[in-house]
Amino acid sequence: MTFREFSEKAWKIPEPFVKNRYCGLAHGIGMVDEYPSIAHQIDWDSSGYDGRFEVGMTVCVESYIGAQGGTQGVKLEQQVVLTENGCASLTGCAFETDWL
Questions:
Q1: Edge-to-edge strand order for the sheet containing 26-28?
Q2: CB proximity list for 99: less than 8 A, separation 6 or greater
Q3: How far apart (Å, rounded) are the C-alpha atoms in residues 2 and 44?
Q4: Positive or negative CA dihedral for 51, 40, 86, 88?
Q5: What are the residue ranges spanned by the domains of the chain?
Q6: In this structure, what DSSP letter does residue 29 have?
Q7: Which three-class secondary structure state does DSSP give residue 74?
Q8: I need a labelling partner for 86 at 20 to 30 A (CA). Which of 13, 26, 54, 71 fits?
Q9: Beta partners for residue 12, in sequence order
Q10: pLDDT, tens digit, for every residue of 3-60?
């Protein structure tokens, strides 16, 4: 899959949260913007670049959801390695969902 295809197929952020979106959909291991830095579809024209995901790559899929002017938000990150059979999580703990 190309980076652009990933961006186009990604979950669309609901309008109340777009302003405070995390700067990208996914990035390489390290601080934000490590290669590959995958832009949101809404930002593709200004900051996106294409490439191709390959077996052996490790990426952080990241998001932040918080309304503009709100007092709370949620930031999640999942590190995965791309394998011949899909993504394998490198995170050893599950997200807490009992409170949902």
A1: 26-28, 58-65, 74-83, 86-89
A2: none
A3: 13
A4: positive
A5: 3-89
A6: S
A7: strand
A8: 13
A9: none
A10: 999 999 999 999 999 999 998 999 999 876 799 999 999 999 999 999 999 999 999 9
